[in-house]
Structure formats: structure tokens, C-alpha cells
Design a protein that fits this description.
This protein is α+β, with helices and mostly antiparallel strands and 200 residues long. It is built from 8 helices and 3 strands; from the N terminus they run H-H-H-H-H-H-H-E-E-E-H.
Amino acid sequence: MPAAEEDSHGTITVVDNICRISPDLLAEACQPILIYLQGQTRGVDSAELSDTFQRAGVRLDHEALHSMIRFLLLTFRSAGKNNLSGDDLVSRLEEGSKNWSKASLQVVHRLWSAQGALVRAQQEVHAMLSIGQLVDMQWKLGMAVSSDTCRSLNSPYVCLLLKIVEPSGHICQKSFEMTIPQFQNLHKQFKEMAAVMDTV
């Protein structure tokens, strides 16, 4: 559980922040996290959660909100990996910190009991595939005019920049250059894939 992964003061602060919000607001904050862990969204929008908290009259600074989101992500992700039931999850949380309110633990129990199986199923799929997901692609056409070994290259190229979300949730960027024939071959392969996907 995250309590072991963070220092005790940090965990106590996060738990205190979680327990000071209403059960309904906690449920509303957990929902996008669980939906993300089920693979239905690309991430958790902290700005949207911040707006939700502000509308409810709860003031949390940027770092406190991010710590809460990280803690809940780690909690639910760890519960899925360890195949925990709602009761087991609550027991582990209580072992990690004595500051939990009964109402907050009831919300976590209710949400995990209802949605934990979906999170576990998504984690199993990710474990089998363990590949990244393409979230953005940018390209540009360039012209190599010269190099240190050739004075007059005059060779066109395509530069691709891919943004990929790795299974860990980290977004990385990969860039590479291709000659025009290489790019045309890639384009042809994408068209073939699209045609096959249309038949499915």
C-alpha cells in the first residue's frame, strides 16, 4: 500500500486531507481515478478535480491535490495487483494509518467492491500486452542541404515525433527521421492496416 511507499508524515497529511472532505466529494474524486485504472480514459484531470473541490468549498493547494491523486492511484492500483477485496483494502489502509475516518473507509470499500474487478481485468490486459499507447503524432518535412561528409545533399526527409503513454502511465516521446521512400512504405502499411481494421 502507498503508506509503505511514502514517508509517514506525507501519508498522514494525505490521509488527513482525504478524511476532511465529505464522503460524497471523496467518491466524486475517486471516480475518475477508477475510470482511468479501468482503461476508459487516458489520465486523471487534476485541474477538473481541483475545480470540483473548489465548487464544494474545499481548498487544497496544488501539491496537496497531486499527493492525494497519487495516493489514491497507488492505493487502487496496488489493491488490483494484490487482488484485494474491499475488506482487505480497508484493513491495509487502517494498518498504514490510524487517521482514517470511518466514513472515508466506507467510501473506499464501496467503490472498490463495485469497481475493483474492472480495474483488475484492465491490469491483466495491460500485463499481457505491456505495450505503450500512442496519444499524439506530429510530423514535419525537411530538406537536408549538406553534412560534414557531403557538400550538396539536397535530400528530403520526414521527421516523426510520437508521444506514447507507457504501461506505467509515464508519457515519453520518440522521434525519428525517414527518407521519402521509407515514409511512403510506412504510409502504405498504415493504409493496409486501416483496410483490415475496416473489415473487422
